[in-house]
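Minutes, methods subgroup
Present: GH (chair), OT, SY

1. OT presented the first of two proteins processed in the latest run. Sequence and structure tokens recorded below as shown on screen.
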Amino acid sequence: MDKNLKVFAAELIGTAVLMIGGPGSAILAAKGIGGALGVALAFGFSLMILAYAIGGISGCHINPAVSIGMWIARRIKTAELVYYIVAQLVGAFLGGLIIWIIAKGQKGFDATGNFAQNGYGKSSPGGFNLGAAIVVEIVFTAILMFVVLSTSHGKFPFGFGGIAVGITLALIHLVTIPVDNTSVNPARSFGAAIFAGSGALKQLWAFIIFPIVGAVVGVLAWLAVDDGKLEDTMLGDSKVMTRARDAASGAVHKAAGAADKALD
């Protein structure tokens, strides 16, 4: 089979399984597994299992924001990015559909506004506003992206990447479920929103845009500690980004020089 088709199949299956294990745990079993704690662990376990199951085939992105971040870091090609994102969206739909079919087997179940969808304002589990959701999605997607890049680095201990990213995703959910039900993954948000009704779909834009912004921030954070340079990434093609980098570097050197003189 063509490599891109293998990647497509792996990402489709992986994203579907993430939907079943993550949002599925919240929809079908939250009360029995300890609420937010159990759901957070279910997300983390799902990603950890999948990292070992399909990591060798596609890298186990199962998240458009991560795929875009990997593309920005030049870890995958532009043509490959299309396969990743389409597969992830289809997989999220299929995973959500499977959970919806199961949930409909419970008498009186209504998926409208009750399908582990992401939201802010009145749709936030803790009543948090849009501003809080924006900060959460940018910061915590950046953390996830940072860890993904670190675990795919040649110096990272072989075989432990799945554990690291799985625990990271669980931690992210432990902190942020009360804020916006935790996205950090546009496909996961899409797969829940299409079954949750118009209210979730109206807010879906935030859980597409800001995780992607967070992925870019995560790439920049990784460059701050890695041997790589901005020019090694897609961001290096932007004169605005390189000028901002050079200006920031110059300011740091001036501040360091001033500090040295003050100490003398």
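2. SY then presented the second protein from the same run.
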Amino acid sequence: MSHHPITATLESFVNGDLPAGEVRAIVEHLLGGCAVCRRRVLDRAPFLADGWLADGDPGGGGGAEHEAAYDEAIRRAVDGVLLHGDRVLDHKARTRRLLAILRRTAGVSEHRLTPHRGRRPALYEAYLARSWELRVEDPQRTVVFARLACRLAGDLGQDGYTARQVADFEARAWGELGNALRIAGHYAEAESTLMQAFDHWAAGSRAARLRNRLFELSASLQGALKRNREAIATLTLVHAMCLEDGDRHGAGRALMSKALFTSYAGEPLAALALLREGLAAIDRRREPELEAIGLHNELLFLVDAGSFREARRFLWQHRARLVEGEGRLQRTRLTGLEGRIHAGLGELERAERCFRAARSGFEEDGLALPASTAVIELAAVCMRQGRWEEASELGERAADTFMAHGIQGEGLMAVVTLQKAFELRLATSVLVETVAAFLRRHENDASARFEIRIA
């Protein structure tokens, strides 16, 4: 930075509102010896005077020692702003400030932060909140922040918490770490981590809501392992426990999760009923995102049930909310659902456009198998339009992709059936659509069985 930062920029720096790159630029400028800007910062944040903004060059030269000192200065810069929050704000506000710091200094020094007495509880909350925020866009960093929370949880006794309270903190953190590991695809470690979370829970106050949360996370792992019947049984238990505890919102959320696994088990109408019951029970102010999840799942269940006209009306009514704040992957999935609606209503040209767009979207995100399923759905549309050769080429290409990615069991049987049907010129649009539907289900249900339908 060759010029003095403007006053608004320095104020944002002190408040923790700058992106990571700008934080580094400001710190580098201040460490470069700009007495004017140091004084401007100290006027706004005098608590930094006893740390990295003291007179003198903390680097002391060049090379590795200078780089280490520079990293330490970054750490102390962030630490200083965290300390400021601790001195003047209540616990919830401190947590929000800490979360803002973690979010805006990603990749700078978050793993080097050394919490002090009084700041650990808010930093613990911030780590868990940041882990949850990253679950879709960066699963691996979701794991990193959950691990940080686990490490910090064991030290909370130094802040005056009892052994049972510390065990509760540990149970929650280990549970969220297990969930993060599931999201990142580390299923074996996720299972052992959740078992540790239950051990911590047993050593703590045995709070009912924490217990229910751990069972919910266990159900999510069972679903990821395609053990949908186990997940449904676990969530039935969670629902009953929540009702017993008077937690109507938790009971509704359990029903919504149960609905998803019921759909994965091939019962979309039963899933739809569970979802609507769950949505009626939740407190939307408590978890606003649940309503958006419910909208997406209701559309999915309507399409899976073959209720295409109702699904189209639902999509028209809720499209703005379905796409609001969603990432590219979710929009791609929505496009695929729209393609299935058009195909189900016989609107083949619209269906073709949607399936081509969905294929491109999945390919851009490196998701070869969902992209190949979209290709199979596109092949079925081409067959219904009389473009048999193009459909055959698309179907065989998709089958090759599934084979290359090591699909097994009933999924392999479905793909081989499709491949042979095209080779022998026995493929029909009904068969191709059946294979596509099965592969969608097989992605989430290990017990699914493929039934051949030629005509």
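Chair's summary of item 2: Confidence is low (pLDDT under 50) at residues 47-63, 69-89, 105-116.
Next meeting: continue with the remaining queue.
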